[in-house]
Design a protein that fits this description.
Elements lengths: L5 E4 L5 E7 L4 E4 L8 H5 L2 H10 L4 E5 L16 H14 L5 E6 L3 H10 L4 E7 L5 H4 L3 H10 L3 H13 L5 H12 L3 H11 L15 E6 L7 H10 L3 E6 L11 H20 L7 E8 L2 H8 L1 H21 L3 E5 L4 E5 L2 H21 L7 E8 L2 E3 L2 E3 L1 H12 L5 E4 H6 L7 E7 L8 E6 L5
Parallel strand pairs: 3-4, 3-5, 5-6, 6-7, 7-8, 12-15
Antiparallel strand pairs: 1-2, 2-4, 9-11, 9-12, 10-11, 13-14, 15-17, 16-17
Length: 448
């Protein structure tokens, strides 16, 4: 059964076609601009399986670019701001207050611009084989050759681009996509959109992207090269780079499951916290921080380092569930959580360190060593997050700990008095941002 096509109106009067599939957290996938046709794409079996898989856990939303597919085709403005209007029309029509945003290839700059301008509406940003500045992507001789074909031989151009996107050995999928490209719109209109996209440049906005960002790239794709992905991830403050194996820019070709699993894990990091209001009143705040993640990436490579981070995340989240902790957010190299009980927070911290110790015995070449810091207080709760002095002190306490240690100030020790925990007095410590020294205690967790 095909999804029901609906329409949204942009601020400049363009009708944008879209459909939705599934229920739950909204996940908006931007089109492969300008070659989008949400009805014809649904009829490609592999593409349909990808969309059905994405919609198993959340609401998937796809739309057609202006000038293409089932959207208005009589359009002349393909600027970056006009493309932002298309996205705004769809999410506003659906009344989405908060959603995950997926942008790939030429619409990566549009996704970045929207996330920078609307940080409270975008929960997660996923950038797939994307770029911030078009000139970075089109600088290769291969890309220059393809651009030269664009205005000379449309059929050869579409066949070449299809094989470039799908992979040179894709065969039938590439030929089918080339045909789809030619059906998405009028040649002159599509050429105008392609010319406009080669001018996109949002590098100045990258430091303003404050939402959790996943930069996904396949190692063997011929274009854009890995340096584009690395440069993009390095300039977004909240970005994480994950490199996967494969030579196709189409997610549904090659190891689709690894791509979708990586996206699932990334999107799931904030969903539980968003579903449960942040606690108010007296809570114990808890931070983990993994030792040497940057060094680890340089030594082992992006893929292996990401696998180790996922192991850390799984161990910490399993312990949070076992001890009634609530994950607040992922911090890049660690996790922030809260507990209504100081004792349960301490039990969780000890459980994590002991589990990691056992893991490290079995994996001596790639040990995972983390710091854990706690504090108790009455933080400010806002939009499923916690703020204030109590949170800052927990973070500073974590930063002061050595790998493998659990540190807590005296308030946590007093709340857990008589519960059988062993504390070692570390004395008064000067912590950055705090005027007075803070009395810290090490929580003893190693079994005799």
């Amino acid at each position: 059964m095909e999804p029901r096509i609906q329409y949204a109106q942009t601020a400049d009067g363009v009708s944008i076609a879209f459909w939705t599939l599934g229920e739950g957290m909204a996940h908006v996938e931007m089109p492969i601009s300008p070659f989008s046709h949400i009805l014809l794409q649904w009829q490609v079996p592999q593409w349909r399986r990808q969309d059905e898989r994405m919609a198993e856990k959340r609401k998937l939303i796809r739309y057609d670019s202006r000038g293409a597919g089932l959207s208005d085709r009589d359009v002349s403005d393909f600027s970056l701001d006009a493309q932002v209007l298309d996205l705004e029309a769809v999410v506003d029509h659906l009344g989405l207050e908060r959603f995950a945003l997926f942008g790939g290839f030429a619409l990566g700059p549009v996704a970045i611009a929207y996330a920078a301008r609307h940080p409270k509406r975008v929960s997660h940003l996923v950038l797939w084989c994307a770029w911030a500045r078009a000139s970075d992507a089109y600088r290769s001789p291969q890309a220059e050759t393809v651009i030269a074909l664009r205005d000379k031989d449309w059929e050869t151009y579409t066949e070449t681009v299809a094989h470039l996107l799908m992979g040179w050995s894709a065969g039938e999928p590439a030929r089918r996509f080339a045909g789809l490209m030619r059906e998405t719109g009028a040649r002159e209109t599509l050429q105008a959109a392609l010319r406009a996209a080669t001018e996109f440049d949002v590098t100045a906005l990258l430091p303003q992207v404050k939402v959790p960002t996943l930069v996904l790239h396949r190692r063997q794709v011929p274009w854009p090269d890995l340096d584009v992905a690395r440069g993009l991830a390095s300039r977004i403050p909240a970005a994480r780079l994950v490199l996967l194996e494969g030579a196709s820019l189409a997610m549904y070709l090659g190891d689709m499951e690894s791509v979708l699993q990586t996206i699932d894990e990334f999107l799931s990091e904030g969903e539980e916290a968003a579903a449960v209001p942040a606690p108010s009143g007296l809570v114990t705040i808890f931070f983990t921080d993994m030792e040497g993640s940057t060094t680890l990436t340089q030594r082992l490579g992006d893929a292996k380092a990401q696998e180790i981070l996922r192991t850390h995340n799984r161990i910490v989240r399993d312990a949070l569930k076992a001890h009634s902790g609530s994950e607040i957010k992922h911090t890049g190299d660690g996790i922030m959580a809260s507990f209504t009980s100081a004792s349960r927070a301490l039990e969780c911290a000890i459980d994590i360190q002991r589990t990691l110790a056992r893991h490290n015995e079995s994996n001596p070449d790639t040990p995972i060593r983390i710091r854990i810091g706690l504090n108790a207080g009455e933080p400010v709760a806002e939009e499923a997050d916690l703020f204030g002095t109590a949170v800052q002190l927990a973070a500073r306490t974590c930063a002061h700990a050595e790998p493998g240690e659990i540190l807590a100030p005296i308030v946590v020790r007093e709340l857990a008095a008589g519960k059988g925990f062993l504390f070692s007095d570390r004395g008064d410590v000067a912590l950055r941002g705090f005027e007075d020294p803070v009395r810290l205690y090490e929580v003893r967790w190693r079994e005799a």
